[in-house]
From TrEMBL:
Top EC class of this enzyme: transferase
Coiled coil location: none
Pathway(s) the chain acts in: Phospholipid metabolism; phosphatidylglycerol biosynthesis; phosphatidylglycerol from CDP-diacylglycerol: step 1/2
GO terms under cellular component: membrane
Known function: This protein catalyzes the committed step to the synthesis of the acidic phospholipids.
Organism: Eubacterium ventriosum
Keyword Iron on entry: no
Transmembrane segments: 20-37, 43-61, 82-100, 136-154, 160-182
Topology term for the membrane: Multi-pass membrane protein
MF terms (GO), sorted A to Z: CDP-diacylglycerol-glycerol-3-phosphate 3-phosphatidyltransferase activity
Protein name: CDP-diacylglycerol--glycerol-3-phosphate 3-phosphatidyltransferase
Length: 201
């Protein structure tokens, strides 16, 4: 009986419909990379766009389903942003295959997300509640998505326009990273002040 309850909780936590949709989005990101790479070699371009559209629709509905049918889980709260970051990362990396100027953007993105992951882990281990994304983080993500979608929809855009868009996004990323550095500086000072007490215990 107890094992049955545990199995039911396991499936509800990790394999609810919204979470399955999250796994599907991660799989779509991998498929997108393959389709984009093939498109560079002359394969049809429309499957690339279709993959992103399906991913966006799935992202829109998984949260609504989770809230409407009370399927919100702790794992789902982690999975959704992970799927977002993997999808966005896949698009950025794919664009670097076509536009060399996007390569620094890939580096910026990895540094930003790596820093946020480390800061989040430190905060969790210190017993701090993880806040949602700050407004500048949301603006950065939105701007990056818009710019990348524009590059996807207009693959023959003049190089000057591509450079302007990518440089603008890197400036936004740099601003966002600096703001997060400032935001977490106070947190780390607080944690450093608590460190001796923790060591005494």
């Amino acid at each position: 009986m107890r094992e049955g309850i545990m199995d039911k909780n396991f499936w509800r936590e990790y394999f609810s419909i919204p979470n399955i949709m999250g796994y599907f989005r991660i799989a779509l990101a991998m498929l997108y990379m393959l389709l984009f790479y093939r498109a560079l070699d002359g394969a049809p371009y429309w499957p690339v766009i279709l993959t992103i559209v399906i991913s966006g629709i799935t992202d829109f509905f998984d949260g609504k389903i989770a809230r409407r049918f009370n399927m919100i889980t702790d794992w789902g709260k982690m999975l959704d942003p992970i799927a977002d970051k993997i999808t966005l990362g896949a698009i950025i990396i794919s664009m670097s295959f076509k536009y060399s100027i996007v390569v620094p953007m890939v580096v910026f993105y990895i540094i930003k997300e790596g820093y946020m992951a480390v800061a989040g882990i430190i905060s969790i281990r210190a017993g701090h509640k993880i806040e949602g994304a700050m407004w500048y983080g949301k603006v950065c993500t939105f701007a990056t998505y818009v710019i990348l979608i524009v590059l996807l929809l207009f693959p023959n855009m003049p190089e000057v326009m591509v450079n302007v868009l990518v440089i603008a996004d890197m400036i936004i990323m740099a601003f966002t990273l600096i703001k997060y550095f400032i935001y977490h500086r106070g947190l780390w000072e607080e944690l450093r002040g608590k460190l001796p007490k923790n060591m005494e215990k």
